[in-house]
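Write out the bound-state structure for zinc ion.
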Amino acid sequence: MSANSRLYSIVVNKCPRCHQGDFFIKKSAFSKDFDKMHEHCPHCGENFMPEPGFYWASMFVSYGFYTLYSLLTFFIFVQWLQVDLDYYLIGLIPTLILLTPYFFRMARRTWLTLFIAPRPQMKA
Ligand SMILES: [Zn+2]
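---
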């Protein structure tokens, strides 16, 4: 994955404009205050809060991640590995709960990335 791609900034917690500044303050999605974001990119100064309520719609992106994850694991475990559907569902629910901070952060980065054109060469 290229360090200059939009996918890189979404997956690796980087600014969608310069791909260098951190998007969330904490590096790990599984730490306290996982939801605290920088208001501006620490590298290029890009505004991460374009307007009040901007990230409200990112919950639909998050829903998409949950759906994609559920479908993917369904086909792997139930269709391919022939795991019983009950055991699959018993295992699915805790993993969805555990992945909530990760999907939350990915959804916000994805949502902002849709509205910002990348300029990887941008300097502070
Ligand atoms: Zn930046």
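---
Residues 58-80 form the longest helix (23 residues).
Residues 15, 17-18, 21, 41, 43-44, 46 surround zinc ion (CB under 6 Å).
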